[in-house]
């Protein structure tokens, strides 16, 4: 299926404090994203640190986010696992909570075969009716959704697209050739937003838009309006900020950035650590250069 969403989806941070999840801060971040033009919000994706959250916390965040977003944007819940049974259970819970769709990362650590990837997504899609986005990020999972597997997945009725973060544009182009008109392609790497849109991508699932939603949405709009010169200029402008948001492993820098611009994002949960001072200084400078006010 195609057309689940077009435009910008922000891969949301989960704010923590000493008591657990800071729902008030999450609500403020959601409003910032909607005001910034986000078309969808991804809750409990990799950037949301679900690996270090309890099941009760994930349920709480899901239910709160669905209610807070209130259909003003698509609410997409991360529900992947290295255990197909757990991924299915998480997807079913998300649908029951009112999620508009599911983002399911490939099974990680187990390093299944391409057929295993297909069977994993097939099981999820059989269990739910909502759209499912495949998430390919081999740098984290050690599993790569090859173009021929993406083509097979495109025939599953409620697979809506693939979030590509493989980092290999040759592979992405071949995947796009095979899925074009069947399911949508979403950029999962801020550095490659422009080229992925240029080959027909339907949207961006962005980390940097946590900090700069208006600028990232403008990038999409410029490409959508065939204003490629202006889009390239904006990409050039955004690259230093994008680089800064990945000085250390995601979401360490983007959480620091949100704290700097006035949100109570808190610190990442161990084993992730707070952003090192030298990198924090450089990140702060790039945020200011991007025209975003800092408070910290």
Key terms for this structure?
296 residues; alpha/beta; 8-stranded parallel β-barrel; two-stranded antiparallel sheet; 14% strand
Describe the structure.
The chain is of the alpha/beta class. The protein has one domain (7-225): Alpha-Beta Barrel (TIM Barrel), CATH 3.20.20. Helices cover 46% and strands 14% of the residues. The chain has helices at residues 23-35, 55-69, 84-97, 114-127, 138-141, 147-153, 169-179, 193-198, 213-224, 228-244, 252-260, 277-289, and strands spanning 7-11, 16-17, 20-21, 40-43, 74-78, 101-105, 132-136, 159-164, 184-187, 203-206. Strands 1-4-5-6-7-8-9-10 form an eight-stranded parallel beta barrel, surrounded by six helices. Strands 2-3 form a two-stranded antiparallel ribbon. The longest helix is centred in the C-terminal third of the chain and has 17 residues, at 228-244. It is globular, with a radius of gyration of 18 Å. The mean pLDDT is 96.
Write the layout of secondary structure elements.
Layout: E1 7-11, E2 16-17, E3 20-21, H1 23-35, E4 40-43, H2 55-69, E5 74-78, H3 84-97, E6 101-105, H4 114-127, E7 132-136, H5 138-141, H6 147-153, E8 159-164, H7 169-179, E9 184-187, H8 193-198, E10 203-206, H9 213-224, H10 228-244, H11 252-260, H12 277-289
Parallel strand pairs: 1-4, 1-10, 4-5, 5-6, 6-7, 7-8, 8-9, 9-10
Antiparallel strand pairs: 2-3
Helix pairs in contact: 1-2, 3-4, 6-7, 9-10, 11-12
């Amino acid at each position: 299926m195609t057309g689940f969403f077009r435009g910008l989806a922000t891969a949301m941070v989960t704010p923590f404090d000493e008591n657990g999840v800071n729902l008030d801060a999450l609500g403020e971040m959601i409003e910032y994203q909607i005001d910034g033009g986000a078309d969808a919000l991804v809750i409990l994706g990799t950037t949301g640190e679900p690996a270090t959250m309890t099941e009760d916390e994930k349920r709480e965040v899901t239910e709160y986010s669905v209610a807070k977003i209130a259909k003003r944007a698509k609410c997409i819940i991360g529900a992947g696992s290295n255990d197909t049974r757990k991924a299915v259970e998480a997807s079913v819970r998300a649908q029951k909570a009112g999620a508009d769709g599911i983002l399911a990362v490939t099974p990680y650590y187990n390093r299944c075969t391409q057929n295993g990837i297909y069977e994993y997504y097939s099981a999820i899609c059989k269990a739910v009716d909502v759209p499912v986005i495949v998430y390919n990020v081999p740098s984290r999972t050690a599993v790569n959704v090859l173009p021929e597997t993406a083509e097979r997945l495109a025939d599953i009725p409620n697979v809506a697209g693939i979030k590509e973060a493989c980092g290999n544009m040759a592979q992405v182009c071949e995947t796009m050739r095979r899925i074009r008109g069947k399911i949508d392609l979403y950029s999962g790497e801020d550095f490659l937003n422009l080229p992925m849109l240029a080959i027909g991508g339907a949207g961006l699932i962005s980390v940097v838009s946590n900090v700069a939603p208006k600028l990232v949405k403008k990038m999409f709009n410029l490409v959508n309006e065939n204003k490629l010169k202006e889009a390239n200029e904006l990409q050039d402008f955004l690259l230093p900020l994008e680089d800064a948001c990945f000085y250390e492993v995601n979401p360490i820098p983007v959480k620091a950035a949100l704290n700097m611009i006035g949100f109570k994002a808190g610190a990442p949960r161990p084993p992730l650590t707070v952003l090192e001072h030298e990198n924090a200084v450089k990140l702060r400078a790039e945020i200011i250069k991007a025209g975003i006010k800092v408070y910290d």
